[in-house]
Amino acid sequence: MLLFTVLTLAGLGVALSQRLGQASAEQAEFATAREEAAAAAGRAPEVEVVRPTTAAFAPLVVLQGTLEPVQAADLGFEVAGRVSRVDVALGEHVRAGQALVSLDRASLGAQSAQSEAAIAVAQANVDMLRDRVTLLEGLVRSGASPERELTTARQQLAVAEAQLGQAMASRRQLATQSADHVLRAPFDGVVTRVPNGVGAVAGPGTTLVRVEDLSSLRLRTTVSQSELEALEVGATASIEGHEGVSGTIRSAVRSLDPQTRRAPVEVLVPNAGTHLVANALVRARVVVGTPRPALRLPATTRRPNGEILVIDAEGRVVTRSVSAQSDVDGSWLVTDGLAPEDRVVLRPATAREGQIVVPVESQTAPADPPRAGL
Q1: CA Rg, the chain, in Å?
Q2: What are the φ/ψ torsions at residue 229 (nearest 5 degrees)?
Q3: Is the same domain home to 206 and 228?
Q4: Residue 205 and residue 89 share a domain
Q5: pLDDT class for 357, splitting at 50, 70, 90?
Q6: Is the pTM of this model over 0.70?
Q7: Helical H runs in the chain?
Q8: What is the average per-residue pLDDT within 345-358?
Q9: 113 and 98 belong to one structural domain
Q10: What is the pLDDT of residue 291?
């Protein structure tokens, strides 16, 4: 029974494959038959065409890259310890200096008490030796004590004062270590990474929190030499897909990378109230010339090599080379090689060069959306 089922499924697979192949062959035969039938009937096959519409073309440089936060910081402790407190949540807005995460300070408390005791002992020793030096100075003046004892007392006082200074330095070091047990925000921003909770042991240098300043975003990318020559610092770059959102070219390095032959460019985009997403891939358009008239065609009219098919006055399909650039909606703006009265084949795969056809006006008219940056 199992063998029968397997053989049946295999047979169905082969039959399906053959059926698909037959369908493709039937479509090709149908197209050929249609042409032959049209020729036999004394008429040419029908081909759907469109006429270009007028549009405005502005020379553009398209910049593509990632919108990075204007500044970001990965934060971790300089000392090891156990996380005892998490004061912020993921996505929370924080202010500069605000506490984010704290480590357990139990060991610091014991060390602090020990340090204070050491300071008290050192201070008492200094006070005692100062009194002794004062007493010996009076005895030496009266001749009741030798000069040697006063010298020894002064040396002992100097040692005691040094020990007091050392104890106070240890207290300052503990205060610094205590501050190192608290992570604070280095600038205003948004928390994009935070520990899940308390109890974990953090090692020195381990990233626990990430803060990103999203008030402005940076688009960093590279351009070719010709594009670099057309760009200027201060020019406006419009972000595609976000109407009314634009940035300013902040830097354009006038030096090409020896390997890639491209130059770095940076665009600063204000993000107050624009709802742009950091670290997203975007495209920006920079108008680099004066707008001039153009003709718009649907994207389907263009062949992969950039050519289009046009129907001449005799109904013959002619290949035409044009100068064009893609617009925001995917349509093509033709600036050279096309006339407003030309009839352009909507789908080049439905016709071939030299073929006599009957052009049929398509119901699909190329749209005329507003140009980015204008």
Answers
A1: 40
A2: -65, -25
A3: no
A4: yes
A5: very high
A6: no
A7: 2-40, 106-142, 147-180, 225-230
A8: 91
A9: no
A10: 84
